[in-house]
Amino acid sequence: MRANASSSAIASTFAQANEEISRAVGRMRGAVLSSAIDCECRDRVDVVLRDLEKLERNRIIRRLLTAADEQRRRIEALLVLLGDFGPNESAPLDDGMIAEAGLLFGDIAAAAELGSSLLRQSRQLRLANDVVQEVANSTSCAGPDICD
Length: 148
What we know:
Layout: H1 2-33, H2 39-82, H3 95-138
């Protein structure tokens, strides 16, 4: 189905974007934290980099949720079209109407699958943001034995 290919492409794009963000921020963090700058400055830069990573993840989350909402609206439109399918009516259904209803059901299933995938990804990114925040709260350059 068309939406399955679309689902894979969208999922892959967002996963790649998240990985690129993490790698870029990780490289910046490594470069800054391994430098000879003082501990207080390193802590501030580390906090700024974590905030940048969180902002970028939140931007991706918003895009995922927007894409999921587009699938919801697509399903609504398809359901309106499917309203013409009424097997319990007195007039017999022709083969064309049955075939069309089958296609509509397939499109609804594909849109639902894509929407579900997008929502799962947004949840994973949200959880990743929570983990990053917990790590940030638990680690800092607080003691003289950590900073030189």
